[in-house]
Amino acid sequence: MGMTITEKIIARHANKDKVIPNEIVEVNVDWCMLNDVTIPITKDIFYNQFGFKEVFDKERVVFIFDHRIPSDSIDTAEGHKIGREFANQLGIKVHESDGVCHQVMFEKYIKPGDLVTGADSHTCSYGCIGVVSVGMGSTDISAIMGTGKTWLKVPETIKININGRLKKGVYAKDVILNIIRDITSSGATYKAVEFSGEFVKELSISERFTLCNMVIEAGGKSAMIEPDDKVKEKYKDKNIDWEIFKPDDDVEYLEIKEYDISQLEPQVACPHYVDNVKDLRLVEGVKIDQAFLGGCTNGRLDDLEIAADLLKNKKIHKDVRLLIVPASVNIYKEAIRRGYIETFIEAGAIINHPGCSTCWGSSIGSLTAGQVMITSANRNFKGRAGSAQSEIYLGSPATVIASAINGKLTNPTKEM
C-alpha cells in the first residue's frame, strides 16, 4: 500500500522509509512557532518543568506577537514583557508588528515538504503549500523547543474531492463552511484532510489557505493540498532547498468524499458553532452591529480586493461598525499602494494594525450583550469576541462587506 503526501513527509522527518496510519513515530521538526498568548505559559514549562537552558536551534523557533497587539491592558503588557525577556534570554527573534502568526510563517519561513508545529490550532493552514503542520499545546511546544523533536500518531487521511465552478458571489470560504456543515465539527477528528479536484486546482494559494485553515474546525489534525505549478512559482526564486511530495497511485484513504459546488449558495455559520451552517438566504435580514474582515482565514490581499470592489463609492450602514485588518504588514502596504485602504476609510471603515484583532476578540472590536457581528474569521463560539450574550456569524469577505453596507445579513450578489 502506498503513502499519502502527509505520510511521506512524516516518514521523511522520522527517518523511515514508510509509515502507516495510527503508527506512533518520533519526528524532527523544521519550525516551532509560538504566539504572545502562549509564550508566557511555555516559558514556565520550558525552564521549570523540563529544565531546559536553550532551544534546539535559535533560527528554527519563532516568536510572533499577534493576538493582543498592541497590548490592551496591564496584564497583556506584562505578558509581552515576559515574552520579550524570554526571547532575549534564548536569542530568538520576535515579530512584534508583522501580522498574524500564520501569515508571517507563510511569508517568511515555511516551504513545501516541511513539518511544522505551532502553539495555535490554525497551524494546519500551511497544508496549502504541501506542509504537514499541526497545532499543539504549551507542554508539547516546550519539549520541541528544547529537543527539536516530537511524537506523532500518523493520522488517517480523508480525501475531499471538490469539483465544479462557483456561482457569482460564492467563494472558497463558502465551500469550506459547507463541507464543515456536512462532516460536522468532529467529523475529521485527528485526521489529515487532503483537498483535491478541479476546483482546488483552480484556486489561488490564498484561497487554498482558507480551506486548510478551517480543517481544525472539523477536528482535523492537519490539512494537505498537493503542490502544483502555482506553488512552484512562489518558491522558484527563493534561495532555499524545498521538495514537493505527491501521493502514491496505490494509496488507500480512510474515506473519499465528493463535492460538486456548482449550485452552492453563499453560506453562513450561525451562532454558536462553526458547523451550524445554513444557506445565507435562510437568515438574510438579521440586523448586525459590527462587521469584521481580517484574520488568518480571510485577511489577505485578494480578500481586501473583494472588499474594495464592493465598497467603492459606497458607505457602510450608519448603525454598523466595520473593522478591516490586513493579515500582515506586507499585505497592508500593498493594499495602501493599490488604494484599497483609502477606499475603506472613505466608506467609513476602521483600519487596525495587522494581527488577530477581532477574530480573537480580546483586544479590539469586542461586543456587548445583544450585539451581532458578521465576520470572515474562523470561529463563532459563545463569547469569542466579547459578551457571551452576543452573537457571531461567519461568512465570506463578500458577505461581510455586503452586510456592512446594508446593516443586515445580505447576499453579496446584491452589491455586485
What does this structure look like?
Helix 6 links the parallel strand 8 and strand 9 (191-196). Helix 2 crosses helix 5 (138-147) and helix 11 runs parallel beside helix 14. The chain has helices at 5-13, 39-49, 74-90, 101-108, 138-147, 172-183, 198-202, 205-213, 229-235, 295-298, 301-311, 329-338, 340-347, 397-406; strands at 24-28, 31-35, 61-64, 94-95, 115-118, 132-135, 149-153, 156-163, 191-196, 222-225, 255-260, 267-269, 277-279, 290-294, 321-325, 350-351, 372-375, 391-394. The protein has a 5-stranded parallel beta sheet with strand order 4-3-2-5-6, with helices on both faces. It has a 5-stranded parallel beta sheet with strand order 16-15-14-17-18. A 4-stranded parallel beta sheet has the order 10-9-8-11. The protein folds into 2 domains: 5-17 and 25-259, Aconitase, domain 3; 269-415, Aconitase, domain 3 (2-Layer Sandwich). It has 416 residues and is α/β, with parallel strands linked by helices.
